[in-house]
Amino acid sequence: MAAPLYLSEEDHKRVSEAVARAESGTSGEIVTILADRSDGYTDVALAWAAFATLAALAALAFAPDFFLALWDGALGGWSVNEWTPRAVLVAAAAIATLKFAGVMLIQLWQPLKFWLIPPPIKTARVHDRAVRAFRIGAERRTHGRTGILIYLSMRERRAEIVADEAIAGSVDPDVWGEAMEHLLRHAREGHFAHAMVAAVDRVGLVLKDHFPAVIPDENELPDRLIEV
After folding, report:
1. Which residues form the TPM domain (predicted)?
2. Which residues make beta-bridge pairs with 152?
3. Distance from C-alpha of 20 to C-alpha of 14, rounded to nearest angstrom
4. pTM of the full predicted structure?
5. What confidence tens digit (pLDDT) does each residue in 38-75 have?
């Protein structure tokens, strides 16, 4: 299933123009990416399903009479007269299977799935995806090692700024805090294009101070926003 598009053609144009404007005063190159999500989190969904399954089996072991009575009731009273070890194991396997499948199915509803993902995992996955995207699209692709990526991940509601060697060696990471604050504040308000433009403007000012434009200045990376 294709990822939803969050920005209109006009929004894309605004961000591209902001990148071109910011790069006009610096030798740095800015890449912008807006992602629907940074990971599928299948492992997290499986972990929740496994946890729910184990919890159900533990509950069965702790109070077998209660749950076996529920089983009998679900079968309308048409059950065995006496629960043999084999019958109990069959019931446990059925409960485990239903619980596992049920938890996996309810996590197909994306709001719930992403709500269940622990925040540290979201943060780590967004960072990893941003670094991978940077390595593919910007790292060492400029002569002066002056590429920088502004990455916004929608489902996780997180962002990253990743800089190439020359920028990382000259600019303290804390300097990007203001750009991140602008980016996330506008994104929380639902103004995603404005969020990207604000972040690009702030990054451009920092790059202008540390890496002023040189003549001639080749545009080595595309100015367009990449939406994935």
Report:
1. 132-204
2. 34, 159
3. 10
4. 0.80
5. 999 999 999 999 999 998 888 877 777 776 666 666 66
Write out the two tokens for 152: 């916004």
Question: What is the arrangement of strands in the sheet containing 158-163, beginning at the earlier edge strand?
Answer: 158-163, 147-153, 29-35, 226-227
User: What is d(CA 150, CA 224) in angstroms, rounded to the nearest whole number?
Assistant: 12
Peptide bond into 212 cis (omega under 30): no
Taking the CA atoms of 221, 222, 224 and 226 in sequence, report the sign of the dihedral they define: negative
> 112 burial class (0-12, 13-18, 19+ CB within 10 angstroms)?
exposed
Domain ranges for the chain: 9-39+118-227, 42-115
Residue 26 near residue 204 (C-beta atoms within 8 A): yes
Architecture of the domain defined by 9-39+118-227? Roll (3.10)
Instruction: Decide: 159 and 153 in contact? Cβ < 8 Å.
Output: yes
User: At how many degrees (to 10) do helices 64-74 and 42-62 cross?
Assistant: 100
Residue matched to tokens 């990455």: 151
The answer to whether 152 and 187 have CB atoms below 8 angstroms apart is: yes
| Euclidean distance between CA atoms 168 and 29, whole angstroms | 13
What is d(CA 130, CA 90) in angstroms, rounded to the nearest whole number?
A: 47
Check residue 7 and give its pLDDT.
86
Give residue 2's pLDDT band: very low, low, confident or very high (50, 70, 90): low
Q: What average pLDDT does the structure give for the chain?
A: 82
* C-alpha span between 200 and 45 (Å, rounded): 35
Angle at 184 between CA 183 and CA 189, to 5 degrees: 105
